[in-house]
Amino acid sequence: MYSAFILFDKVLKGTEKMNGTQIVSMTVIGLLVVFSALLLLVLFLACSGSIFRKVQPGKKQPAPQKKAPAPAKPQQKPAPKAAPAAPAAKAAASAEDDSEVVAVIMAAIAAMSAADGKQYAVRSVRQVTRGGSGRSIWAQAGLSDLTRPF
Amino acid sequence: MGEILDFLTNTVGGLWNDSGLNALFSSGGWKNLIMILISFVFMYLAIAKGFEPLLLLPISFGMLLTNLPMAEMYHPELWVLVDGHVDYGTVLREGGLLDILYLGVKLQLYPPLIFLGIGCMTDFSPLIANPKSFLLGAAAQGGIFFTFIVAGLLGFTAAEAGSIAIIGGADGPTAIYVSTRLLTGDGAITTGNIALAAYTYMALVPIIQPPIMRFMTSKKERSVKMEQLRTVSKTERIIFPIAVTIIVSLLVPSAAPLVGMLMFGNLLKESGVAARLIDTAQNALMNIITIFLGISVGATTTANQIFSLKFLGVMFLGVCAFSLGTASGLVLGKIMYRVTGGKVNPLIGSAGVSAVPMAARISQKVGAETDPTNFLLMHAMGPNVAGVIGSAVAAGVLLSVIGG
Lengths: 150, 404
Hints:
The structure holds two protein chains of two kinds.
Chain A: H1 2-7, E1 12-13, H2 20-55, H3 64-67, H4 73-76, H5 78-85, H6 99-116, H7 137-147
Helix pairs in contact in A: 5-6
Chain B: H1 2-18, H2 20-25, H3 29-47, H4 53-66, H5 88-94, H6 97-106, H7 110-121, H8 125-129, H9 133-139, H10 142-153, H11 158-165, H12 172-182, H13 191-203, H14 205-216, H15 219-222, H16 234-251, H17 256-271, H18 275-299, H19 303-306, H20 309-339, H21 358-370, H22 377-401, E1 402-403
Helix pairs in contact in B: 3-4, 4-13, 4-18, 6-18, 7-12, 7-17, 7-18, 9-20, 9-22, 10-11, 10-20, 11-12, 12-13, 12-22, 13-20, 14-20, 14-21, 16-17, 21-22
């Protein structure tokens, strides 16, 4: 490997113009070396990666991307969640299902109504469609919040 | 009385002869004047348009200083090779401020030290989690080698073609590293030209890349959502820099200074035991080096050397290099899309040109343009940081094949 390099060590003279063969062989050699070097790294990482995954099977955590936005959400997003809940008065059905969630939402609404002086009531709680992204609405909001600066 | 008058006229005449204004309006002074105006353009781009200001501003000011006649801050004649070597004794004896600062460029001290700081700031875990990204980082180096072909065919010498081609690596320190080693200083192209082109186009990445990305990919390809990356353990992140250093340095020894320092910085970061060193390397040291590097590289753009059609050639080939790099990254991205049955979004391929993190941001942006719920940023960071390693390897290849 190393000796192969010695073979074409400084074969091109910097101050001279090159002919077609030299140009093409330089390009081929260059691309080959770059690819093979990085391919070696890929193989190394693939091997070490599989070893590490075997060694620590119990350590499979949820990805950090999802975790990161979680602490930020209570301060940022109560308003949009509470607002659609209030006008949805028509379908008064499955509100009892999840009384704890409703209590939390009510607390958020109470905080809001204290701020603007109006009164709100929760009549219905419905599941939000995830739009095919596979992420919950909170994860979605957090993610777009994190990537917005880019 | 007459004596006093004579003395006065002589002194004033002498002062005038020694002044820069006289030199500026004597023969050849117009070239300096034009160079000064060009430096104003780059200053404008840096200040008003925010084009990589941390580098373009020092470079353009160096350009201004070096073109003020008689200021004696930088002497291109000191850097011309005598018997194949720079006479460093003369540089130390007769050099001006910018000559002395340029020593760090010529002796290849600054670029590896900047890489040390970059290593401290780079998180390689997206790459460790998805090693295939390395291939995209390699593919984007196609920009370097395809530009080499074009430059060679246009009649540039091997050293010039190599220095121009490395602009396609989209990595300032690497471009400066290669061009100072290859260019002898008496040709029409200087390290300063290369650096100006590299940093200008790096700032223009958000304008150069998206049209190519939209043109080369279909809407279906752009809207691919990639699987979430796995979590990478601390041990893996510590082993990575050590392994990369060993593998790359054994394979391409001339890439060792760049890759070695990059990985040293990264090891400092990942080890978690060297907080003080990281702090210095990525802040104080890096800022000092950036100032020295920028202003002294800018100083190499003296009127006599930059004034040729070759400078325009460098600027033209530079934008070709960036576009070709983006395109070849996208091509491999598309191949990977096919091979994996639509699991890889080809847009992350264009992030393989190393401009970190700009190129990855562009992948994210173009992806989100097609589907706002698509988040490619972390996936694109893999090829992006792989591109840094890839262009350092490509630099090593150029340096080993092209001699003085």
